[in-house]
């Protein structure tokens, strides 16, 4: 009897455990109600960045692995057939999170009810074109899209401008969507931020995930200032300053900065095409952190509407270090800025002031 009792007891316990697991799983499946889908607009969706971006959104890289999405894709009439092909591929990929796809050349249809807008489409600078010619084209595009977003997008729609000149395109969009809160219109400098993280990780031979709090100040252009003065690396002995670990101020103040500034041109030279994959990935990073929040103790770089912080003129779309919580970004305050950094920050602000003036002259 003792022998059989010693066997029966664990069997009974295992049976109870199994029944408990079944009950818990049943309750979880009952409570685990699927979220309402979020509608994401991608303009220029038939282009290289758009083609790389839409599957990332559909797979959950932008809004989370449990968040259903509806994707609206917009492009110009000459790209309509290519856009149709992208829609076909999205359908063929059978993404579980993708609830619907709209592919259109109609800006009103594209903007209806969107919660997140990723503005990839724009007019690229071509050989022989003057800056004002490019700006005139983009002012016209972003003026029309701003109007459509204001009238047809969800009231709390978050906008990310990717197309260059990204900062000034975002500013134009803001001007022509006056009912949009300024905090809902941003531009992409996360690509530059990620490039800076990558350069530090390669220099120190550490994993990029162990590097944090680099900052991109200013314009998404060759005047941007990649700053490591507050960046740290996670080591076995705790977090250590990047500048101390690199121990090469000459590299950090020259080659590191220019490598990040000119990385896009270097990729075009090597690939004979622009950096589509990394741009799409960083757009997902930007929106994900904005919507879901940045990890505690970590900031990221976003082009946002300046409130005068760090002496940057108010009214520019300028890249700052920001933290995000509950769908809102906040500029990191109180960082110590040395003379070298201040000069770099002011120089890129000066370029943005000039771009703003040029854009407004195109409006007239």
Automatic annotation (TrEMBL):
- One Pfam family matching this protein: Ldh_1_N
Catalytic machinery residues: 220 (proton acceptor)
Q: Out of the domains of life, which is the source? A: Eukaryota
What's its EC?
1.1.1.37
Q: Which GO terms describe its molecular function?
A: L-malate dehydrogenase (NAD+) activity
Q: Which GO terms describe its biological process?
A: tricarboxylic acid cycle
Q: Where does substrate bind?
A: 125, 131, 164, 195
Q: What is this protein called?
A: Malate dehydrogenase
Give the InterPro entries listed for this entry. Answer: L-lactate/malate_DH, Lactate/malate_DH_C, Lactate/malate_DH_N, Lactate_DH/Glyco_Ohase_4_C, Malate_DH_AS, Malate_DH_NAD-dep_euk, Malate_DH_type2, NAD(P)-bd_dom_sf
Which residues, if any, are the signal sequence?
A: none
What is the organism field in this record?
A: Solanum stoloniferum
| Segments forming domain Lactate/malate dehydrogenase N-terminal | 40-185
UniProt keywords (A-Z) are: NAD, Oxidoreductase, Tricarboxylic acid cycle
């Amino acid at each position: 009897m003792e022998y059989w009792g010693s066997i029966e007891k664990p069997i009974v316990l295992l049976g109870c455990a199994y029944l408990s697991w079944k009950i818990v799983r049943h309750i979880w499946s009952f409570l685990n109600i699927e979220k309402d889908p979020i509608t994401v607009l991608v303009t220029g969706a038939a282009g290289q960045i758009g083609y790389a971006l839409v599957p990332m959104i559909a797979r959950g890289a932008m809004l989370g692995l449990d968040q259903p999405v509806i994707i609206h894709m917009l492009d110009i009439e000459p790209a309509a057939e290519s856009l149709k092909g992208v829609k076909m591929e999205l359908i063929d990929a059978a993404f579980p999170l993708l609830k619907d796809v709209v592919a259109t050349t109609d800006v009103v249809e594209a903007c209806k009810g969107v919660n997140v807008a990723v503005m990839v489409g724009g007019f690229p600078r071509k050989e022989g074109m003057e800056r004002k010619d490019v700006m005139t084209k983009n002012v016209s595009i972003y003026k029309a899209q701003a109007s459509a977003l204001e009238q047809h997008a969800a009231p709390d729609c978050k906008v990310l401008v990717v197309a260059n000149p990204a900062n000034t395109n975002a500013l134009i969009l803001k001007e022509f969507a006056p009912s949009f809160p300024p905090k809902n219109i941003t531009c992409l400098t996360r690509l530059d931020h990620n490039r800076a993280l990558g350069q530090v990780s390669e220099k120190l031979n550490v994993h990029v995930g162990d590097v944090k709090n680099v900052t991109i100040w200013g314009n998404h252009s060759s005047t941007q200032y990649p700053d490591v003065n507050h960046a740290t690396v996670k080591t076995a002995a705790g977090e250590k300053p990047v500048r101390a670990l690199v121990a090469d101020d000459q590299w950090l103040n020259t080659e590191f900065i220019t490598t990040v500034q000119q990385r896009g041109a270097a990729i075009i030279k090597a690939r004979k095409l622009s950096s589509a994959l990394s741009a799409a990935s960083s757009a997902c990073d930007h929106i994900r952190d904005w919507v879901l929040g940045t990890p505690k103790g970590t900031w990221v770089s976003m082009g946002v509407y300046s409130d005068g912080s760090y002496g940057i003129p108010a009214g520019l779309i300028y890249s700052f270090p920001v933290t995000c919580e509950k769908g809102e970004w906040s500029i990191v305050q109180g960082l110590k800025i040395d003379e070298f950094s201040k000069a770099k920050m002011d120089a890129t602000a000066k370029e943005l002031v000039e771009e703003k003036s040029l854009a407004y002259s195109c409006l007239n």
